[in-house]
Write a structure and sequence with these properties.
This protein is an alpha+beta fold. The protein is built from three helices and four strands.
Amino acid sequence: MKNKKIIKPKQALIILNAVLILILGLVTLGPSAKGQTARSRGQYLMVGGKYVLNQAGVAYILDQSNQELISLSWNDGSRNLSGFGYRNIAKEIEQVQKSR
C-alpha cells in the first residue's frame, strides 16, 4: 500500500484560516481604486416634472455635493426607471466661465 498523508480536520482549518488571513492582508494592504476617494457623499434634491416629447412624468435628481443632474422616467412596459439625461453641472459652469 502507498503511504498516504492524511490531514486532520483541525489542521485543515488552521491551513485554511492562514490562507484566508494572507488573502485578506493582500487585499487590505493593496492599492485602493481611484474612485474610492474622488467622490464625496451626495446631498440630493428631487423635482418632478413633464418631458415635452412624450408627456411622461419625469424626476430630475440633483446631486448638490458632486454637482450632477440626472433625469429619470418610469417605463410602464418594463416596470422600471429609465434614465435618459445626465449633466455634469460643474463642467458646464467651467465652460461658461471660460467663454466669458
